[in-house]
From TrEMBL:
This is Heparinase II/III-like C-terminal domain-containing protein. SUPFAM superfamilies: Chondroitin AC/alginate lyase (SSF48230). It comes from Maribellus comscasis. It comes from the Bacteria. Residues 426-575 form the Heparinase II/III-like C-terminal domain. It is found in: Cell envelope. The lineage of its organism: Bacteria, Pseudomonadati, Bacteroidota, Bacteroidia, Marinilabiliales. One of its GO terms (cellular component) is cell envelope. InterPro entries: Chondroitin_lyas (IPR008929), Hepar_II_III_C (IPR012480). One of its GO terms (molecular function) is lyase activity. It holds the Pfam family Hepar_II_III_C.
Length: 643
């Protein structure tokens, strides 16, 4: 990538609130193209490869075909497990979501389906039938943590009230594709197999979607704002409706309802396209919206097309703005520190919106993941889409998306690096916002700092989900608390969760020499903190240093200390007074401070949670205690490379 420097200084002030805007973009598009007249009648007309498309399957790389077949063979004797009542009940007994119980048979069915598509000899059909029958016999396809959606008491699914959650949507999609691909083979074995499967998908998913408007994720009853559940589940439902619905009037009504539901997601999205759930959740937010838009375009012979809309473009480009260096992405809130990024969707999304940076980034991610040497992941439709684009993306021009800087003024997230087009030197990102964001942590004003593309000051992330994670006790979990982010604890008080706890006067400026983010986080703390102003400022002097500065006013100095907390995965060593040394992966940095103003203590935490161990073996928290605090004060910490 050519070096890109912002020649003019851009300073943008942000408000703390972005509110729903009745854009209704998709409903307007549906009306303009006459969706009822444009919608296809037969899913087979969308030109996806099916079981009979032997030329397509035979043309796949040998490495992929052999791996698909090998994986399917490992399930030839698979014993489809019973999902016991106690598996469901574990959510109310211990808080264990038991998602591995649901994941195993899903993985088996996917492997068998892809193996049979690849080989085409009928060897895996009987086991696919067993999988189809297994799911047909199940009461519910969802995840036990989501049973609160039913009217009956939490803990066991109510057969009389089929509710749709993420799990139901995922299985409905997989089974709909399985029916589409193998219904003729099923009928050759017994006429009740395909009939039963279709009936179960309709009963458990499609008909409840038609009949109900009160699933919160639909956004149709106005009970709450929606999040990534909306495009994720809607895409699965769109797939099922297009494949299974025989009555064209019902199909049209179902798709029109789905378009209205998707608009509720778009209506609450910030104009800047930022995903407050983070890049890993973008994979089921912006990326899932793209899957809907792509499928709607295909299902209307190209007529339904909103890819020229600026918001849709911004929702796509977010993914490379939030990128640090492979495989690291900015991971505020519950987001993962590393993610593969869904290369085909990023490539295709970039192509459709005319964004060459995004398109080349998708090709770059595909290259990093050795496309063409192993099967892609995802559901059946997602794997087929990736295989359809395999040659195009492999032959595309890959380029790492290392942009100079970005600012999302409504989401209040900014980032900058030392050199555009290079991983060398510092990269930082910081955020404002509010403490009721989706998958929220109490983290207003925090930052992450990387050097040479490797982590230094980090966002720990979140532990493995349990019932507690999404309960009233969420903020008892240490990783959710502001003191375990790169933030101050003021008069012994942490930030508070809630929509009224906000960052204010957030600004970002950038030019070829410097990038600065600043925000007042005083309103993120409850009254007990006795803080009137706390302006946190991060300044990147490109190629030189990274500075963290505070300017604060307290209404009272209390007995409990005020501390500046920083979390790092680096080894921390005390040097001379006023200096700490941070030894990371291939770099050494120095953290300089005024010992008259602050005194550091270092706390080490061994990571035991399996979710966090994917990124960190352990973390160190540097706690700078403010010496002799006054009602007004300033502090500054400077990070430089040790050469």
């Amino acid at each position: 990538m050519k070096r890109i420097f912002l020649l003019l200084v851009i300073v943008v002030f942000s408000t703390t609130v972005f509110s729903a805007e009745k854009r209704d973009l998709l409903q307007k598009e549906a009306a303009e193209i006459n969706l009822a007249a444009s919608l296809i009648k037969d899913f087979s007309g969308l030109d996806f490869p099916d079981y009979e498309s032997r030329a397509f399957w035979n043309s796949l790389p040998e490495a992929i075909k052999s791996e698909y077949i090998k994986e399917a063979e490992s399930y030839l004797d698979y014993n489809w497990p019973v999902v016991k009542a106690t598996d469901y009940l574990e959510i109310i007994r211990s808080g264990d979501r038991r998602q591995q119980v649901y994941a195993a048979p899903r993985a088996a069915l996917l492997a068998l389906v892809m193996g049979e598509l690849t080989e085409g000899k009928g060897r895996f059909i009987d086991q696919i039938v067993n999988g189809v029958w297994y799911y047909s016999e199940q009461t519910w396809w969802g995840w036990s943590a989501h049973l609160t959606a039913q009217k009956a008491p939490h803990g066991l699914p109510d057969v009389d009230e089929p509710v749709i959650d993420l799990g139901v949507g995922e299985i409905a999609n997989i089974l709909s594709w399985t029916w589409f691909l193998f219904k003729d083979q099923f009928d050759e074995i017994h006429p009740l197999i395909a009939k039963r499967l279709k009936n179960e998908i309709m009963k458990k998913a499609v008909i409840p979607y038609y009949e109900r408007n009160d699933f919160w994720w639909q956004g149709l009853d106005g009970s709450r704002d929606v999040n990534n559940w909306n495009p994720w589940t809607n895409h699965n439902m769109l797939t099922a409706i297009l494949i299974l619905e025989d009555d064209q009037s019902k199909k049209i009504a179902g798709v029109e309802k789905l378009v209205k539901s998707l608009d509720q997601f778009i209506n609450v999205y910030p104009k800047d396209g930022g995903c407050d759930e983070g890049p890993s959740y973008w994979g089921r937010a912006g990326a899932s919206l793209y899957q809907n838009l792509d499928l709607l375009k295909r299902a209307t012979n190209g007529k339904f097309d909103v890819f020229d809309n600026q918001l849709i473009k911004n929702m796509g480009s977010y993914i490379y703005k939030a990128y640090i260096n492979y495989p690291y992405f900015i991971n505020f809130a519950d987001a993962d520190a590393t993610t593969g990024g869904r290369p085909q969707i990023i490539y295709s999304y970039g192509k459709d919106i005319g964004d060459p940076v995004m398109q080349k980034f998708g090709a770059f991610l595909a290259e990093k993941q050795d496309w063409g040497t192993k099967p892609p992941g995802g559901k059946v439709d997602e794997q087929i889409m990736q295989l359809m684009h395999l040659d195009e993306i492999k032959n595309a021009d890959p380029e790492n998306a290392l942009i100079s800087d970005f600012w999302l003024p409504e989401t209040q997230v900014a980032g900058a690096r030392d050199k555009a087009g290079s991983t060398e030197g510092f990269f930082f990102a910081a955020k404002g916002g509010h403490n009721a964001e989706s998958h929220n942590h109490n983290d207003l004003g925090t930052c992450v700092l990387y050097f040479d593309g490797k982590p230094c000051l980090v966002d720990i992330g979140r532990e493995t989900y349990t019932a507690k994670t999404f309960s009233s006790k969420r903020y008892e979990i240490w990783t959710m608390q502001s003191q375990y982010h790169n933030l101050p604890k003021i008069n012994g008080v942490d930030q508070m969760n809630g929509r009224n706890f906000v960052a204010t006067n957030s600004t970002f400026s950038a030019n070829s020499k410097k990038a600065t983010f600043s925000t007042d986080i005083s309103k993120a703390y409850p009254e007990d903190a006795a803080v009137d102003k706390w302006v946190r400022t991060y300044t990147l002097d490109r190629g030189k240093k990274f500075t963290i500065a505070d300017n604060y006013v307290l209404s009272e100095v209390k007995d409990q200390p005020t501390t500046l907390n920083f979390v790092t995965n680096c080894d921390v060593q005390r040097r001379t007074e006023g200096k700490l040394r941070l030894k990371g992966d291939g770099f050494v940095l120095e953290m300089s401070y005024n010992p008259k103003v602050v005194t550091p203590e270092i706390e080490s935490t061994k990571i035991t949670d399996a979710g966090l161990k994917r990124y960190w073996d352990g973390i160190n928290r540097i706690v700078f205690k403010i010496n002799n605090p006054k009602e007004k004060g300033k502090d500054e910490i400077v990070v430089t490379e040790v050469k």
